[in-house]
Specification:
single chain, 296 residues, D-Maltodextrin-Binding Protein, domain 2, two-stranded antiparallel ribbon, rod-shaped, transcription, Transcriptional regulator, transcription regulation, LysR_HTH_N, WH-like_DNA-bd_sf
């Protein structure tokens, strides 16, 4: 069926008059009439009958007009949907992130984004950096927020947001609280370590190796950041953590930072994406919002 002719018929049926339909379409009345005649020939039925200055729909015309109204109503919905999808106000955004950005950065950004784009479906997955890169490569996520220095797959590109400082942290009444000490001195204290494989633990081990210092005593190993911090808050040991993870506790006076001479370790936080792929509009909006937030 000729959809162009069907649309002309639909508008004529809605207006009840060929002349008014032609004026709305900005085409001549004979052209409208000719197209509807072709449609009648195509389907083998008469759709319109003259009625004074207007037209009368035949029984077949009445039924076809009902179906045409649904068809072009759906077309209108499709056009609105495509426009919304194109401008990023609807769609789906899949994000993957490592623990640090997922817990201390993304909640604020996601809340701000959803207030601005409430109809966009957002899915956030938290995992380690290797799995995060795998999800990007395998099209299970569109953008990733990854903490730490590491080699990135050549299929991916990264943009560093900022560098987060790494701090030695103790109980507020610890003898080293707010003091300046040497690396040798702090390493003599018992440490509350995260599980093997944690980024902070790996950085601390590397720091000892670089400075030819024995690794600190593992006073306690805990699989969980909050649990490790709570133990230190109760007065035991030292922990080594991202400033993002502990700055609120320090601001409240629950913990204290130790200033270790000559040590300035930083943990980069990066946005990653597939190198050759064009980002969806929701992803573009989200990244732009994050960059603007970081620049302010």
């Amino acid at each position: 069926m000729n959809l162009h002719a069907l649309k002309l018929f639909h508008i004529v049926a809605e207006k009840g008059n060929v002349t008014r339909a032609a004026e709305e379409l900005n085409i001549s009345q004979p052209a409208v009439t000719a197209q509807i005649k072709k449609l009648e020939q195509e389907i083998g039925m008469t759709l319109l009958a003259p009625k004074g200055r207007g037209i009368l729909l035949t029984e077949a015309g009445i039924e076809l007009a009902k179906h045409a109204k649904r068809v072009f109503s759906l077309e209108g919905e499709m056009e609105v949907y495509l426009e919304q999808y194109k401008n990023g106000s609807i769609g789906k955004l899949r994000i993957v992130a490592t623990y640090l950005p997922a817990n201390f950065l993304l909640p604020k950004w996601l809340a701000k984004y959803k207030r601005r784009y409430p109809e966009v479906e957002v899915e956030l997955t938290t995992t380690n950096s290797l799995k995060a890169m795998d999800q990007l490569i395998n099209y299970q996520a569109e953008i990733a927020f990854i903490g730490g220095k590491r080699e990135f797959h050549p299929f991916l590109t990264r943009r560093e947001l900022f560098e987060d400082e790494m701090w030695f942290v103790v109980h507020k009444h610890h003898k080293f609280a707010l003091k300046k000490v040497t690396l040798d001195q702090i390493m003599c204290e018992p440490f509350v370590f995260r599980e093997k494989g944690s980024s902070a633990r790996e950085k601390l081990v590397s720091l000892c190796t670089i400075n030819s210092i024995n690794q600190p005593t593992v006073g306690l190993q805990i699989n969980g950041l909050n649990e490790a911090i709570r133990v230190v808050m109760e007065g035991y040991g030292v922990t080594f953590a991202s400033s993002l993870e502990v700055k609120e506790y320090i601001a409240r006076g629950d913990l204290a930072k130790v200033n270790v001479e000559g040590i300035e370790l930083k943990n980069p936080i990066s946005i990653c994406r597939r190198r050759e792929d064009e980002l969806s509009m929701p992803a573009q909006h989200f990244i732009q919002m994050v960059m603007n937030d970081e620049n302010n």
